[in-house]
Design goal:
With about 130 residues, this protein is mainly beta. About 5% of the residues lie in helices and about 35% in strands.
């Protein structure tokens, strides 16, 4: 077992050009060598979201707010910021759907694609 303190884990920022997404991420579980469980410390400035709205088919997520001031949901609106821990199960069979952009992410394949309407035989040899 490896123990790490978040002060010792290097973080990374979401680039400014993908607003309103943003924040400072620290992958705590990865730093400790975890394979099946993910734990991240996330710090958001006002008006930032860490991810677009999405739903998972198999992944379980739990969020623990460690610091907030007048926050609202996953967006730090009209606030001085938000810091939370995000726990996830890293299910390899998980499929994640992003309804606003009509994208789907297959975790086990490491593939993200945009969905489009097709018929059953589209692209099959005739």
């Amino acid at each position: 077992m490896t123990l790490v303190h978040w002060d010792d884990v290097e973080g990374f920022d979401i680039p400014d050009d993908v607003q309103p997404l943003g924040g400072r991420w620290q992958r705590l579980a990865d730093a400790a060598g975890s394979v099946r469980v993910g734990v991240q410390r996330v710090r958001l400035a006002p008006e930032q979201m860490i991810t677009p709205p999405h739903v998972h088919s198999a992944e379980q997520e739990i969020f623990h707010v460690t610091w907030a001031r007048r926050c609202c949901g996953r967006t730090a609106r009209r606030a001085e910021g938000l810091t939370y821990l995000a726990y996830g199960t890293k299910e390899p069979s998980d499929v994640c759907y992003y309804p606003r952009s009509n994208k789907i992410y297959w975790r086990g394949l490491g593939l993200i694609a945009r969905l489009e309407p097709l018929n059953y035989v589209d692209g099959e040899p005739g």
